[in-house]
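Data availability (excerpt). The following record was deposited with the supplementary files.
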Amino acid sequence: MADPMDIDEAEGLAGREDSQDDISSESDDSSSVVSTADSDLLELQADIAKLDASIEAFTAAQKGLEPPASKPRKRGPRGKLGPRKLPKPTPDILLRLSLARTAFDARDYEDAKERLSELILVNPETYEAWTLLSNVFEEMGNRREALQCLITAAHIQPRNVNVWLHTAMYALEDIELLDEGEERSERLEIANMCYSGAIRANPANVDARTGKADVLMMKGFASNALDQYRRALKHRPLNIRTVRNLADCTLDTRDPKKGAEEAKVAYQQIIAHCMNKGTMEAEEGEFEWSDLRIYLEFFTILEQWKDGARELKRISRWLLGRLTETYWDDLVDDDREWDAADDRRLEVPEFVPSRFPDISYGEGLPIDLRAKLYSYRLKSGLAFEATMHLKCLDGEGEDALERFRDWPDCLKEIGNSLLDQGKARGAIPYFKLYRQIANDSEDVAIDSGFLVDQGRCHQMLGDKEAAEECFIAAIEADDENIDGRYELAKMYESEQQKDGREEALVLVNEALNLEALQEQREEEEREREEFNRKIIASRRKPRGQYRKRTREELDERRQAKRSRNQDPNKRRFMPRRFVDDDKKRKADEERSKEIKQMYGKLQSLRPQMAALDDDGKPNEEAINSWKDVAGNLVAEFRSNKDFFPWEKYILYVASNPVGGAAARRSTKLTIMAERLQQTLAPTDGESFLPPQLSRRDYRGIPFSEWLDIFLEYALSLVRDKKRKESYAVCQAARDSVVFATREDTFLIHVAWASCAVYAGDEEACVAIARYFMRDYAPGADSYRLFAAMSRVCQSPVSWYCSGPAQKFILRQIKLLDSIALGGAGGEQNQDTAHTGVVVTSADTEVSEAQRKAKTGKIGLDVCLLTIYGHILFTTTSYTYALSYFARAATLDPENPMINLSYGLAYIHYALKRQATNRQYLLAQGFAFLFKYYDVRLRIAQTSGERQEAHFNIARAYSMLGLAHLAVEYYQKVLEEARKELRAEASPDPVMGREDLAIEAALNIRGLCFVLEDWEGVQAVTEEWLVLE
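Predicted structure:
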């Protein structure tokens, strides 16, 4: 590593000259202040002057004299803003630095590190100490610490551009060898920060701006990098490296068309300069054929076919050494200059055959540029010139493979151009040649775009089987391929069978969903650019004008949007429809074999998931592998439309409805989706009937095992904080006609409830609990489940006491009331419409409840009344809550919970401002509280239950401000705790130890503070509140 101390050698003289200029300017101006390096001395002198003035004033006051008048403070001109100049190092610092350098030269790095650390403690602003310490860490192999030292040194000299640039380059050393991860991101961020510091020190420094742009490109911020390259070009418009990077950024942006004209003009400046100078040399490089190819891309983006052809011919002529033959420019729509033979060129009077070698004409034009020129002429409507170029681009000749081996992409361009002209048979040789080159070379890939083009070619020729295979292969190669889905949907729509049209609708909806996802990503990119612009603008604005969103908030917002539009498990198996029956059967057998292998792997991973590693941690590798396999199995099951009603299946494959955001972007997809929906819509009197299944397994796996996979996978997703995805898996299991039995539905909702509780989603907890209360009504266990789920969910009680939940519970109460009255009085009150019972599956509920009423197994439920009372209690509707607690107390007068709730409702009501008879309400409340107290002590079996009774009474007294009564019952809690400690009782093995001693001691201490009982505070703190 080079010594960073040598970086400033070029600027050392300039710095000393600046210092001399400052000193001379200060000496010339009598009113100027001293150097900012003496600011500490000035402050000391000012403090001494203030102390002297204070002493004089005190002395004068003691002697009865007038205090001396203070002299007005002279204010000189304000000093220069910015970082102050560092003082010269003292001899002690220089000595320490010399000893450290001697130790470094002797390779005694530990001694050098220790001496430099001591020096930094004495004066942290010693620049040379930090740079030398960076060298020490570098030699010791600690690059991270070395980089941090360089960053500190750069902040000590913030106006030194070279220091910032050196630190940035050090951070980027061997960055290409690092994989994507935290270290790479950290080093890129540091390099970005250093280049920004260099730009602040010198905004005109091109190296700083281009370096910052390069880092932004590595981070994926093409738009921001583009802005830096633009600013760099203002200072060096003829720098070809910057122009190339500008072009690359433009092509990588979301909309290359916006910056295409600017990049094209930048290249034109380089080209004009080189042509005028008669050389290909530019700043930091030469103009090459690759630059011409990039330059022509912008004509293609802007659809300037004729201009692109003109520039291609003109610049190619220059690169081939025929710059003086400008007469060819007069032949605008004629390309005879690039014919293989001289026949047409001889018709031009200015042409001299022997003036330039033949290789500088037709044969000298690179084959990919000839393909580009062919495409330009074909799109410009010049069919004859295009045909002449196509003769030179023969894809079936003996040397075709060797000619196109280095330029395989031009084969796709030629084939696409022929397809656009409806010449599919002529495009076949080029596509075959491209596939042959791709099979022989690892650098050439058969991408989804090529597969779609080849499928279109087979479709035009009537080979539906080959076209279907290509389109499906394109979709499998790229999950987000839209063109392949659209072309395949057109093929399936042309079928007369309903299954084909259904599959076409599925494909179109998938394509619409993918377009919406792409639009969402573009919106995220716009938000990120806007965020970065606000960050830059905030540096120029005073703080406190507005609250800026943090990157974490922006990422959470993106994740929330992405979870609504994207499901990571929507990779479904697509069977072939245009193959014969034997191929279909073989493909189905192979797929079944694959699924069985995946299921076997899933079973083999279970023991590995349960095992712990040497550190006592779970086997993350096995867990992740299990999740991948389970996700693929779930996707396989969900892709079978025989297992779902059609309306549910179509919702699964298309999460965006027709007419949404995607409809604004693709009219052809929207029109096709609407047409297919109208075709598949049921006629009058018909409806979508759910499929009927007679089998008990799928792909050789029983349906019960499939259900286990669904539920376990949902639980694994929620543990990974993928709440919406886990809900989607549970929803799919519930919608399936396979899992329609009561036992399966019960298991699905139990797993769903577990996911909601784990995610802390109170809304989902309440919704699932309502299912149990509805489908298993009447039953105390379902009501208890509702209360338990709302309790264990770590979120506010907004959904527990919300309007929908409150109305649902009230309907349940009215339903039981009406049935109980109807059962007691014969068949009266059969019309229950006046009760307001409007619930899903109401007829089932009423019939089930009436059946129990006839057998005498139904009555008013205490849990239901108490829950509704608690909901009203939570919303501070104490008067209404008292009536329901009274009904519950009538049914179960010895229930501690009911009496406690009843008493607290009275006390809280008494504390309201509108209470009419507060004394009566308090008396009633404590009557029920002490009834609870007596019952709880009588039935208590553990010390924790007795502590609970004492504690609740103490809290009630404390709430009323009766501290002396509250302390008495808090003391009883502590007495129970002392007895338990003396007995050394073992804790409960299930729920743990119930002990309220700490809470009681803390409350006693607070009450003692209020009563100013300091001895009591000390005593209770020393006994109960000291950490051991």
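Summary of structural features: The beta strands are 281-282, 285-286, 697-698, 701-702.
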